[in-house]
Amino acid sequence: MGIFDSLAKWLGLKKKEANVLVVGLDNSGKTTIINQLKPAESKSYDIVPTIGFTVEKFSGKSLSFTAFDMSGQGRYRNLWEHYYKECQGIIFVIDSSDRLRMVVAQEELEQLLNHPDIVGRRIPILFYANKMDMRDALSAVKVAHLLNLDKISTKPWHICASNALTGEGLSEGVEWITGQLKEVVNAK
Ligand code: G3D
Asked: Is the pTM of this model over 0.70?
């Protein structure tokens, strides 16, 4: 059983489905994080292609994850934005060592928050300040500052530093978002 699955079970999410989107720039660590969270028995598949962005999806017993790159290719944007309507939670992954593209991540986050399918909804957002093991990685506090997270007032959010290679920091975030999802899903 993967960590997400056992937590979901513990928190009583078992019988209900929640869709979680895992987003972030390419190379931020989304695939690595998903592989750490994935329950051993779940199946994952990649749809690569013809359309120019990658979607990875897997379902645990009670949670379904969809991940994609926000890689700035304007013409594919509406393809991934199509997933916004159905999601109950978002995991936004940042490469904390990629100082040059921090502003790009911030712009993508702003677009996400202002999207019509997201803006008025109280969707929990978990931020992973990933690659904290890298020598030049910024702290989670610094990443939060650069992304203007303190301006987010209408959605619950949480940031944790993570190392997706070892899994360090991942369960703290998972615990937080699972608790949030429990409230959302059980209120349905
Ligand atoms: P993506 O799915 O967001 O595009 P990936 O990102 O999960 O494919 O990760 C991109 C690269 O970063 C991979 O290296 C991966 O091993 C590495 N990576 C992911 N998370 C961490 C982390 O926490 N610390 C460090 N040091 N590296 C990480 P490769 O070499 O396979 O491209």
From this structure: yes
CATH number at residue 112: 3.40.50.300
List pLDDT tens digits, range 25-69: 888 998 888 888 776 655 444 433 334 445 556 555 566 677 766
Residues with CB under 6 A from ligand 1: 24, 26-32, 69, 130-131, 133-134, 163-165
According to DSSP H, which parts of the chain are helical?
3-10, 30-37, 77-81, 102-114, 140-146, 170-186
Q: How far is the CA of 28 from the centre of ligand 1 (A)?
A: 6
Give the model confidence (pLDDT) of 71-117 as tens digits: 655 666 777 788 888 889 999 999 999 999 999 999 999 999 999 99
Q: Is residue 1 part of a domain?
A: no
Neighbours of 50 (CB within 10 A): 5
| In-domain check, residue 10 | no
